[in-house]
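REQUEST ID: PR-0412
SUBMITTED BY: lab tech R.K.
PRIORITY: routine
TASK: structure prediction, single protein chain
INPUT:
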Amino acid sequence: MIREKTEVLVIGGGISGCTAAIKAGDSGKSVLMITKTSDPMESNTRYAQGGIVALGENDSKEILYEDIMRAGAGISNPLAIKIITEEGPRLVFDFLIHEIGVSFSKNEDGSYNYTKEAAHSKKRVLHHYDMTGFEIQKKLLEKIKTIKNITILEEFTAIDFITSHHSSENPLLKYRNNLCLGAYALNNSTGEVNTFLADATVVATGGIGKLYQFTTNPECATGDGISMAYRAGADVTNMEYVQFHPTMLYTEEGSGFLISEAVRGEGGRLLNKSGEEFMIKYSPEWKDLAPRDKVTRAIYNEMAKSESSHVYLDVAHYYTGEMNIHSRFPGIFEECIKHKINIEKE
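STATUS: complete
OUTPUT:
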């Protein structure tokens, strides 16, 4: 068994893990980031298409706050939303654009091309065509490679946190705060379990999407960090709220390919088996840009009523974007062409 000591251990290498590693590395700390995939690019971040929220024209953090609260049906954590709305848009520019060098799509006049997504009352979403996550992940990893005190270990699957209560024979420790001292991780290549000790441990392992049969999430999204935290005694809340992205390319093989919400943000409309628009029945105000839970339930209801395996998404006849469809959604266009679907025409 290999035993290593670092100042900061980061488990997970998506946008959260990479950002934590960069900030800790820039402060002079020695950082070890482990990821269970063989390719550090492989994470949920990579597959995010639509974009990231900033503030658009005639927009404000107060309007953004209200939009998020309304989309969360009033039960979102107000403090968390306040932090997101006050710090998030600024960090998109200060960190992602100016420090990391993320290239978001621009209009012909050089201004940023903001788009609209579900439950947003303003066009405030910055994007890199329909490959935003890929662009962000790529630039984050490029930045990490320039910071000498950050080490990345691929193919290490975290198993459990090492805590001050771990395997202790002292029954009185349960009355004291449980301190995290690092983690055990499986070397996927050798089958050995390594011990990584750290002054601080950051858990950034992503969600649980791959626990479901049908998902747009990659194979690595299995909720490892959540279960580890639960076993270590951390508070784990809101686990009953699992967000399903409403639109995925339907094929008989089950492609699992995400169709960005931005397609509806640029005018796309959902149609049932009979070719009828249906979102106005379920959300008269937001229609096709209703919050994801409402869109998901609406799609499910329409499929159940018509005994259909899918619904349709028509952007060809309702597109409102400034670029042509192929240029705006190159990844989606090419994937659909593989399945003999031309989204510019049908």
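NOTES: Residues 3-44+145-232 form a domain with the FAD/NAD(P)-binding domain fold (CATH 3.50.50.60).
REVIEWED BY: pending
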